[in-house]
Design brief:
By secondary structure, the chain is α/β, with parallel strands linked by helices. Helices cover 33% and strands 13% of the residues.
Length: 554
């Protein structure tokens, strides 16, 4: 493991440490995110020069006819080395591999079934099974798109959103393995019809490490192979011109959905992620790879053209994975263009969640809620039963009217014998809209930011309903009631689209709250950098860290 660690992650870590000045703003942020020993310095967002706000008001037209159906999948984490019958009870970072003779099929008392295990990433059999279920539950259909000026019948199609993290969570995946995983997954996903995808942190090799263009040439580091593979995989839906544009924008792209006034903007959120060690330049960039500027340009263009916009990416902006500066910058963009943004769709957490953007995070009200981030759960069963979402979309405004979560219960015996049975877990509007006062159940009513705020108030005041939310968050897997500070923090996270306000308990000396083994295996979400626990091991002996740095990193 140590040999693999050095080969994969050392270049980015060495880059961060050797050019870092102490004290400096970069070192303070690094100390906070990696060691938990320092406070985060005052947030320094990008200095935007926005045009004047648009005078347009929110769209209130009701849809005509049937709503559009859009599928949202994320974190499939397909493991092509998953071995049926191998041990699912192991001490490695990823189980269901025959690492030792005692873990081999026919020998181990913990044999992995043919359709997956909660200790392992996704076998191809489960991946194919979900795609087939999607085709049955949400079949291809003709649908109508109405705008203010015209109506057009689109060809039969199923539109799907893929929020990233195709490869397995095996952190030692080489570029060749990553490219194979991306190519194979998109070849399978393209059978669903029109597909819009985003870059995930596990598309990198090593995981998380996307060097900005400013550091690429000098350090001989690039993830261009990732962009090339994703561009090829999405070419049937994006077309050659847009796929080529994806390369130029470091994994970000935009496209107008055929026959509509809906623009899809896919952004690479890895340039804002705290575990991307290439970001810790001597002076950290305010907009690595120009993703923020790209997003503003696209939104400004859409606002002027009267288009609606969906933003898709991997990591939701309020998650603790985001560095505070970039999270605040993104939220400032949302505040400015929330009338143009019809929806934001993310993955990464492996959980069924949402986040609310507010005008003020110190005075959170229904009237002050301006946008919603939709965070879907995962196919990989490591954090709950496999699942996907289906949104009902207003064909005029492209706002979300409702969403339904489908899942496969792995605890039933038939899961491993006859195969997974995909069933409805719940509809968001059905589950919570009827409990509001007055009830919010009209099929044509959109899920507004104010509605989501009122749902969090319902969670706060009705603990039974809140515990049902926690149950659904993991699709009923390994349910433990969430009370006390757990509930307070969860509500705080739902009400924050800025990571600095998200109540994740990150504080000075927070490193003592997690064990090295927890860091190696990951806690619920995608596993973290394998370098982190070893760097943290020096935190109690900073003299040893200094001596090691002087010896090896000169």
């Amino acid at each position: 493991m140590c040999e693999g660690l050095m080969a994969m992650e050392a270049p980015a870590v060495v880059f961060a440490l050797t050019q870092m000045e102490v004290p400096s703003r970069t070192s303070e942020i690094f100390c906070f995110t990696v060691f938990g020993l320092c406070p985060y310095p005052p947030v320094n967002p990008f200095p935007f020069n926005f045009t004047e706000p648009s005078p347009q008001k929110r769209h209130h037209e009701h849809y005509v006819g049937e709503p559009l159906q859009v599928v949202h999948i994320s974190d499939i984490h397909v493991d092509h080395n998953y071995t049926v019958g191998a041990s699912f009870n192991c001490t490695e970072g990823l189980c269901c591999h025959a690492y030792a003779p005692s873990e081999a099929p026919g020998v181990t008392p913990y044999p992995a079934g043919p359709f997956g295990n909660n200790n392992c990433d996704t076998p191809v059999s489960l991946e194919d099974n979900m795609y087939n279920a999607i085709k049955e539950i949400v079949p291809d259909r003709a649908f109508t798109v109405f705008s203010r000026s015209h109506a057009q019948i689109l060809k039969p199609m199923l539109t799907s959103l893929a929020a990233g993290d195709i490869p397995s969570t095996e952190w030692t995946a080489t570029p060749e393995v990553v490219v194979f995983d991306i190519n194979d997954a998109y070849n399978r996903m393209n059978s669903l019809g029109v597909l819009y995808g985003a870059v995930g942190n596990h598309e990198a090799s090593p995981v998380n490490e996307f060097p900005p263009p400013a550091v690429t040439k000098e350090n001989n580091a690039t993830e261009q192979f990732v962009y090339d593979a994703i561009a090829a995989g999405l070419a049937p839906s994006l077309g050659a011109a847009t796929a080529k544009k994806l390369d130029a924008n470091s994994g970000s792209y935009s496209i107008l959905h055929p026959g509509s006034k809906l623009k899809i903007i896919s952004i690479n959120t890895m340039f804002w992620m705290k575990l991307n060690f290439w970001l810790y330049e001597k002076t950290m960039e305010l907009d690595p790879a120009g993703v923020l500027e790209f997003l503003v340009q696209e939104l400004d263009e859409s606002e002027k053209c009267g288009q609606r916009v969906w933003i898709i990416g991997h990591i939701a902006p309020g998650l603790t994975d985001f560095l505070y500066d970039y999270s605040a910058s993104f939220d400032e963009i949302v505040q400015r263009y929330h009338e143009t943004i019809a929806g934001m769709f993310w993955g990464h957490t492996h959980r069924d969640q949402f986040e609310i953007s507010y005008k003020s995070y110190t005075n959170q009200t229904a009237d002050g809620a301006v946008a919603v981030s939709y965070i879907t759960s995962s196919l990989t069963p490591t954090s709950g039963y496999p699942s996907f979402r289906v949104y009902s979309i207003d064909p005029v405004t492209y706002n979300v009217l409702d969403y339904t979560v489908y899942y496969a219960n792995m605890s039933v015996p038939s899961f491993q014998t006859t195969g997974p049975t995909w069933q409805k877990l719940y509809s968001f509007k059905e589950a919570y809209g009827s409990l509001l006062s007055p009830p919010y159940i009209e099929p044509s009513a959109e899920l507004t930011p104010a509605f989501f705020h009122n749902v969090t108030v319902l969670f706060q005041n009705n603990d039974t309903v809140f515990q049902e939310y926690i149950f659904r968050k993991q699709r009923g897997f390994d349910f433990v009631p969430c009370t006390g500070t757990c509930k307070t923090d969860e509500l705080c996270r739902l009400r924050s689209a800025q990571s600095q306000f998200a109540c994740y308990g990150l504080s000075v000396l927070s490193i003592t709250k997690r064990s090295i083994q927890d860091d190696i295996r990951g806690i619920g979400d995608c596993p973290v950098s394998r370098a982190i626990p070893y760097l943290r091991a020096f935190s109690k002996d900073q003299a040893a860290l200094k001596a090691a740095a002087e010896k090896y990193l000169k």
